[in-house]
Design brief:
single chain, 392 residues, alpha/beta, 16 helices, 40% helix
């Protein structure tokens, strides 16, 4: 891995590109009675406007740019590889590099090709083989100069979607369900197989995956239940990264774990707690808490904060949240935790899996014209890099 601390912004393919019509999420969003406030539609037209977005990131002082490759565009029908889509993503990698940024590419971010989803999705008997075929197909993209590859974004949330028919981030506000065990097993197998395939082609590429890890804290009297809560929800996915080049931590809030019926762990909420606009507790120090919980689980594997941010209409609140989160990260690093990077979610206001109302972006986007308007937090965060570059 590079000796430099990764300092960047993150985006997601389906959430920014628009008109991802060959994906299972597009089909889900348009299904009768779908539990979404609105479909993704044009998103923020990132498929065409990515040069402007990269210009903004580079101009603000960031060094790294995370974006996704959309499998359903690369392989819209079973066995048909779109050379035009592969070339599009290759040009994006070249665009990142030409601006002095480093590309960080995610291969799967919640969405699947429709044909794959209709056939059972991750429960298909041939799921691993089909994913590896996609990995092989995008070799020209990765060979263009990608140093960091994430195989599956938040595999634990993917497995939770499979276990909860109320698919979408709004469903997760009721609490984190137990991940589907079969999907969990499959995703771990797919991740390991994809890592081996990627490393065989390019031993220097740094491969890992980003896990949703919140700061889980036990309420008094429930300390013995904390492991029962965290083990299936994130720890199994963190342990699966034991041979990776890095492991991603994606943190937004804390979760309080108490004792429920029959002595089972349950999430405890405080109605008086300060909340973000999507209903999560405003608790920036969750980042430091999550890093401290992850470090002993992954051993010598370097940690990259692959997502951290806040849904808010108030940019001053965004700066407050992010400043406190970075302070908690710095304190963890000072205590010896190996953090190799920080990627902020999100570069842009985008589609948050059922709604555009929750705004995470350092850059505001007009939904009618797609005009990008940088918020003050963009330049502010870009300037923080000198104080964060030293690694522990």
């Amino acid at each position: 891995m590079s000796g430099d601390f990764l300092w960047g912004v993150a985006t997601g393919a389906h959430q920014t590109e628009g008109n991802n019509t060959s994906s299972d999420w597009w089909r889900f969003e348009h299904a009768p009675g779908a539990p979404v406030g609105e479909p993704s539609g044009d998103a923020v037209d990132g498929f065409h406007r990515w040069p402007e977005d990269m210009d903004l990131a580079a101009g603000a002082g960031f060094t790294d740019y995370r974006f996704g490759v959309e499998w359903s565009r690369v392989e819209p029908e079973d066995g048909f590889i779109s050379r035009a889509a592969v070339d599009h993503y290759r040009r994006m990698v070249e665009g990142v590099l030409s601006r002095g940024l480093r590309p960080f590419v995610t291969l799967h971010h919640f969405t699947l090709p429709n044909w794959f989803g209709r056939g059972g999705g991750w429960l298909r008997a041939d799921a691993k083989q089909r994913f590896l075929r996609y990995v092989d197909a995008i070799a020209p993209v990765l060979d263009a100069g990608v140093a960091h590859v994430g195989t599956v974004n938040e595999p634990n949330i993917v497995a939770m979607f499979a276990a909860d028919t109320g698919r979408g981030m709004s469903a997760l506000r009721r609490g984190l369900p137990l991940p589907d065990p079969q999907v969990t097993e499959t995703l771990v197998e797919v991740h390991h197989a994809a890592r081996a395939r990627l490393k065989a082609r390019n031993p220097k590429v740094a491969v890992g995956w980003g896990v949703s890890v919140q700061d889980c804290q036990a309420e008094p009297g429930a300390e013995h239940l904390l492991a029962d809560y965290t083990r299936p929800r994130d720890e199994v996915f963190l342990h699966a990264a034991s041979d990776d080049d890095w492991v991603g931590v994606q943190t937004y809030t804390r979760i309080r774990v108490g004792r429920g019926p029959e002595g089972r762990p349950v999430e405890v909420t405080d109605p008086a707690a300060r909340r973000t606009m999507n209903g999560w507790e405003f608790y920036p120090e969750a980042l430091g808490g999550a890093l401290r919980r992850v470090a002993p689980l992954v051993g010598d594997v370097p940690i990259i904060v692959t997502e951290n941010g806040i849904a808010t209409e108030d940019d001053d609140e965004r700066v407050e949240y992010t400043s406190r989160a970075l302070q908690s990260m710095r304190a963890a690093m000072d205590d010896g935790i190996r953090v190799h990077g920080y990627l902020h979610w999100s570069m842009l206001d985008n589609y948050e899996w059922g709604t555009y109302a929750t705004t995470f972006g350092l850059v505001a986007v007009d939904r009618a014209t797609f005009t990008r308007t940088p918020r003050p937090s963009l330049e502010w965060l870009g300037r923080q890099v000198p104080s964060q570059r030293t690694r522990s």
